[in-house]
Please model this.
Amino acid sequence: MHRYFLIPMIGFFIIICFLVIYLQFINEDWKFLVPKTPIPEICDDMSEVKLITHDNDYLEKREFRDKKDIMNNNQIHAIYMLPCEREDRKFDVNLNIHSSLLAINKWFADKSDDQILSFDLNDKQRIDVTFLRVNKTMDWFDNKKEDKNSIRIDVSEKIKKIILTNKDYFYNFANKKFIIFFEGWERRKYINFDICGKADFNGKISIYYTYSRFKKYVGNDIILKNKKRIFTCTKNDHLNDKDDLKFGDAEATILHEILHTLGAPSKCGKNLDKQNSHVSDNSDDIMHKESGNLYLDYNNDDYYNHNIKECDDLKKNKYLIPN
Ligand SMILES: [Zn+2]
Model:
């Protein structure tokens, strides 16, 4: 090819490449020109954090506070939490949360010594789910640019704080742990890896993120193999529909996080990974870092029904009850 053709063509492509890099990574402001759905007036990222409701949030069978407990024991309470402007997908009233937690207990009874997790139930023997909407937008949770010290606080830390400052919404707060279904996402720490759940070892609060930052719902045309719109963080799975008791990726993630708050895996387990936070002897173990779905303590030598002396055993945890 003639150089008088080649040189200008290469030059042209280099300029285009720089332009793309500039617009994608350096100056992204143009993206804000795309029309966005207006944010409701009640949302306020500047004032103090408050729990609010939109008119449309009022639905039959929805609960905005913990219902009176039917039992006095330790319980795990479910919360459906929404940032101010996010769509209400009704996972509480449509019994998605109920069905996923039931599926978890079915799996758990099968894998354990016929024990189940002690979930907070209402008088109809359904999972008591509390609906909480916050006056903060997902942008606030994500904390992009604000904060003078430029310390980025994890979304999970903000969620935790909201629960801890609203103790009066719950009965027997001291005897409860929480599983939160958050209609948003956690900030990504790795380019190819979404954080779908979070919990502290022996903590009070576990979180399941119903969205991924990069897989959020963008129209009718994104359809998974099961003909569902994408609304989940976990790869090909979502919360269960009513009466579906399948133990899928979502349920494995949720259970994994809850078990962290119950102190699993035990620090004295035999097969902990380098960080001391997950088991490494079998990738199908629920407490493997990627939440397997076959074993509750493979070989019983890490956290459940083990024989290690002076080592906590999940089997004796107060949040487990006989099936
Ligand atoms: Zn984990």
Q: What stands out?
A: Residues 216-230 have pLDDT under 50 and may be disordered. The first helix runs from residue 3 to 26. The first strand starts at residue 51 and ends at 52. The pocket of zinc ion is lined by residues 256, 260, 278, 289 (CB under 6 Å).
